[in-house]
């Protein structure tokens, strides 16, 4: 019985990769220094896994930005707009230009589109395909990292996104073809990669095929069958580990079981029933092995050894030990690095900490389970088993978890609690009268740049080096300067800038009961952006107002409207590590009631525009369509509960980003937000088509510039996007705003971009007025 790991966090235990990438982008370190940081992280990861006892250690799970972008560069699928950069810059700078855009040395190119990785909060860079797309082995990263590991004394298992999944992750940039038509052009490059790996001594290769967890067409399933038959015909000695995760094979199970592969990996956390499906089908080939993903790669709760051992024993009884691998459910890039770094009792109490496991601890869980299941039990294994049993029993009995008042309030929800007083058509008239906003009103999504200075204030305050009075005085000054800038630049609906907030979920979690926090529980969201999700361990409630103080202060500074800024219940749920002892819908409803209380208090404080961000609504959608209705019912209801306690003339906004909306547009309309803002610039307003085709009735703000890139677009560029928007959405429904919050940007580029954005809105107003007069 072997142990198998699918991927390990690439950011480093102390976010070394983030710091090095940002230092390189700022010109503070050289490319060689950045590459050395990457090398050190990889070696440390391989060493940690080897010493823990992992048999199949992954390589090529490291990335400087995103693993899908890595493959795009490897396969030479570089969009034409980067051709000059490819000629004049290093491969590393080309790579970052594709991820972030580039606006220097007289070059100005936009970044590639970014979207969510299935139902996670990880973002990947979307490949772009044309009908005559050519592929070539442009980067040898996969081979280089395998050789690097071998030279360091580690025999690894290269991780490769399969050809079919890679194509399905991308988008056609021309009409009239399907990207899977490129498969025969793509496969020779994969064959070249596999051949080079085999020559270097690779025996196992992990092929990630996550689309097998989705509802596929016959055409897509045939492409998968064709691909693995071709690989097997050419490389019969390579042991292919077909890796599916995040859900069941579903109706794809027959296709999967017929593939000529060495091992199937099963995510038995997200789909525990599929082991029985496979064993009972009788269609698993006699020589094929199973990798049992019994340790949760996406959450931080300690494994229940008793339950996992029962699953393992069932598989062993049917197949024998030599056909079983023990593994996490998916790559551990979705988990924080190391629980041992959590030493602050104020941040994370020892009672809660005993229930948790991060990536390093999950690796040890995998090895311990293998030892316990195989009978090779050491004293250490026995001690781990006893500790595991006690911790899981303690969690069930803990008095921290349950709050009867919260449970009773959820049980008492009535139908009217998720409905506004009147329909949008009536509310819109009242809001227009109350707010008196111009055509194409301008606003931002909420946050403004958090400089190193602002972050240092928060750090000093937490260390008690600043008093509450001193800290508040600094934040007041920063908030007032931001209000003044927005007034001077001509923005119509202002925000306070959120300088008091660390993260859009963590900030709220810190003020809600039922949440715990880590100091070093970082996970990668995209590129160098890391987030530290809260831990929802118990029933959720709001002890006191969370945002009213700063919203009131900002509104007192200006005669313009200031938006109240909140994170919605579904996003707080999705971007937290959620308790697994009750349905997620129950936890989400508890959060919704807490946010509802805050919305009502903001309205009482005179805030007439309140934004409840829900960027994770689409992200939370189950991968299999047959499960959508149940999720959407409770998720949309949770948003409506949070938003429905206010008067008609209070305007409710929401924000969504980096998602496809076509298949849930009716549900988005059912949210009944007065205004929705969405990310649109990277897709050149393509995402707006869903709203246009649906004839979306409420107001909408399609983002006109990409805040995840440092480049500053001209107002002409934004006008072009707004004209595309106005061609499909009535002008009196359109708002003008950036794609997302500005927290991660620098002030210089933010000022320039927002001034250009206001100019674009003013130009659109003039054009609209001329049209009306004509």
Q: Could you list some keywords that capture this structure?
A:
alpha/beta; 2 domains; six-stranded parallel sheet; 25 strands; TIM Barrel; eight-stranded parallel sheet; 774 residues; 28 helices
List the helices and strands and how they pair.
Layout: E1 2-3, H1 16-25, H2 31-52, E2 57-59, H3 67-74, H4 83-88, H5 91-100, E3 102-104, E4 107-109, E5 114-116, E6 123-125, E7 128-129, H6 141-151, E8 156-161, H7 163-169, E9 171-172, H8 183-199, E10 204-208, H9 218-234, E11 239-243, H10 253-257, E12 263-267, H11 274-281, E13 289-295, H12 305-319, E14 324-328, H13 350-353, H14 359-374, H15 379-397, H16 404-411, H17 424-435, H18 452-462, H19 468-489, E15 493-494, H20 506-509, E16 513-516, E17 523-526, E18 529-531, E19 535-541, H21 548-556, E20 561-567, H22 569-574, E21 577-578, H23 584-604, E22 609-613, H24 628-643, E23 651-656, H25 665-671, E24 675-678, H26 689-694, E25 699-702, H27 715-726, H28 747-773
Parallel strand pairs: 1-14, 2-8, 7-9, 8-10, 10-11, 11-12, 12-13, 13-14, 15-20, 19-21, 20-22, 22-23, 23-24, 24-25
Antiparallel strand pairs: 3-4, 5-6, 16-19, 17-18
Helix pairs in contact: 1-2, 12-14, 16-23, 18-19, 23-24, 24-25, 27-28
Question: What does this 3D model show about the protein?
Answer:
The mean pLDDT is 93. A hairpin with a 2-residue loop joins β3 (102-104) and β4 (107-109). α18 packs antiparallel against α19, α23 runs parallel beside α24 (628-643) and α27 crosses α28 (747-773). The protein has 2 domains: 2-397, TIM Barrel (Alpha-Beta Barrel), CATH 3.20.20; 424-773, TIM Barrel, CATH 3.20.20.210. With 774 residues, it is of the alpha/beta class. The protein contains 28 helices and 25 strands. The protein has an 8-stranded parallel beta sheet. It has a 6-stranded parallel beta sheet with strand order 15-20-22-23-24-25. A 3-stranded mixed beta sheet has the order 16-19-21.
């Amino acid at each position: 019985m072997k142990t198998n790991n699918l991927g390990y966090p690439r950011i480093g235990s102390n976010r070394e990769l983030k710091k090095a990438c940002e230092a390189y982008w700022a010109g503070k370190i050289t490319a060689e220094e950045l590459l050395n940081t990457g090398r050190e992280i990889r070696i440390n990861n391989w060493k940690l896994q080897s010493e823990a006892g992992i048999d199949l250690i992954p390589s090529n799970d490291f990335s400087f930005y995103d693993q899908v972008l890595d493959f795009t560069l490897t396969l030479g699928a570089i969009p034409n707009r980067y051709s000059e950069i490819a000629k004049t810059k290093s491969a590393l700078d080309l790579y970052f230009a594709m991820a972030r855009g580039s606006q220097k040395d007289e070059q100005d190119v936009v970044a590639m589109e970014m979207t969510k990785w299935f139902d996670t909060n990880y973002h990947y860079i979307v490949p772009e395909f044309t009908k005559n797309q050519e592929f070539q082995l442009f980067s040898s990263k996969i081979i280089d990292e395998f050789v690097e590991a071998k030279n360091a004394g580690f025999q690894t298992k290269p991780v490769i996104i399969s050809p079919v999944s890679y194509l399905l992750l991308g988008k056609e940039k021309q009409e009239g073809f399907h990207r899977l038509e490129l498969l025969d052009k793509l496969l020779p490059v994969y064959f070249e990669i596999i051949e080079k790996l085999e020559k270097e001594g690779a025996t196992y290769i992990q092929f990630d095929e996550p689309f097998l967890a989705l509802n596929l067409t016959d055409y897509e399933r045939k492409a998968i069958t064709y691909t693995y038959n071709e690989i097997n015909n050419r490389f019969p000695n390579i042991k292919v580990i077909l890796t599916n995760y995040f859900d069941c094979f579903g109706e794809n199970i027959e296709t999967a079981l017929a593939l000529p592969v060495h091992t199937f990996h099963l995510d038995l956390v997200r789909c525990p029933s599929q082991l029985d499906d496979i064993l009972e089908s009788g269609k698993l080939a006699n020589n094929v092995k199973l990798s049992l993903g019994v340790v949760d790669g996406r959450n931080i709760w300690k494994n229940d050894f008793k339950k996992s051992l029962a699953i393992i024993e069932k598989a062993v009884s049917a197949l024998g030990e030599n056909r079983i691998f023990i593994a996490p459910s998916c790559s551990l890039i979705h988990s924080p690095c190391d629980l041992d770094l959590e030493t602050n009792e104020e941040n994370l109490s020892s009672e809660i900490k005993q229930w948790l496991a991060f990536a390093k601890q999950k690796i040890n869980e995998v090895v311990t389970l293998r030892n316990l299941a195989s009978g090779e039990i050491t004293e250490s294994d026995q001690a781990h088993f006893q500790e595991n049993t006690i911790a899981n029993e303690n969690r069930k009995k803990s008095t921290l978890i349950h709050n009867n008042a919260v449970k009773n309030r959820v049980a008492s929800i009535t139908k009217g609690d998720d409905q506004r007083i009147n329909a949008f058509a009536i509310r819109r008239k009242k809001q227009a009268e109350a707010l008196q906003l111009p055509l194409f009103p301008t606003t931002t999504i909420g946050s403004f740049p958090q400089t190193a200075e602002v972050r240092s204030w928060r750090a000093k305050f937490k260390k008690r080096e600043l008093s509450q009075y001193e800290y508040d005085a600094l934040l007041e000054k920063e908030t007032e300067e931001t209000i003044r800038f927005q007034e001077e630049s001509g923005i119509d609906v202002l925000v306070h800038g959120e300088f008091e907030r660390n993260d859009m979920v963590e900030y709220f979690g810190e003020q809600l009961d039922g949440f715990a926090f880590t100091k070093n529980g970082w996970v990668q969201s995209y590129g160098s952006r890391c987030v530290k999700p809260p831990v929802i361990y118990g029933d959720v409630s709001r002890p006191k107002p969370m945002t009213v103080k700063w919203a009131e202060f900002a509104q007192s500074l200006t005669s313009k409207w200031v938006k109240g800024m909140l994170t919605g219940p579904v996003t707080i749920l999705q971007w937290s590590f959620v308790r697994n002892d009750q349905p997620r819908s129950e936890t989400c409803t508890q959060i919704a009631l807490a946010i509802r209380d805050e919305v009502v208090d903001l309205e009482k404080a005179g805030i007439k525009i309140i934004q409840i961000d829900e960027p994770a609504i689409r992200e939370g959608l189950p991968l299999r369509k047959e499960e959508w209705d149940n999720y959407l019912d409770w998720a949309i209801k949770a948003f409506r509960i949070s938003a429905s306690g206010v008067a008609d003339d209070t305007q409710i906004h929401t924000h969504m980003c980096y998602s496809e909306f076509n298949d849930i547009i009716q549900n988005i309309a059912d949210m009944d937000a007065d205004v929705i803002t969405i990310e649109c610039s990277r897709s050149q307003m393509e995402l707006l088509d869903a709203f246009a085709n649906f004839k979306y009735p409420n107001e909408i703000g399609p983002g006109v510039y990409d805040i995840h890139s440092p480049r500053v677009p001209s107002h002409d560029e934004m006008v072009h996007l707004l004209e595309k928007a106005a061609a499909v959405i009535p002008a009196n429904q359109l708002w003008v705003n950036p794609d997302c919050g500005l927290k991660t940007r620098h002030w210089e580029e933010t000022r320039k971009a927002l001034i250009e954005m206001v100019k674009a809105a003013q130009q659109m107003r003039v054009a609209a007025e001329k049209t009306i007069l004509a």
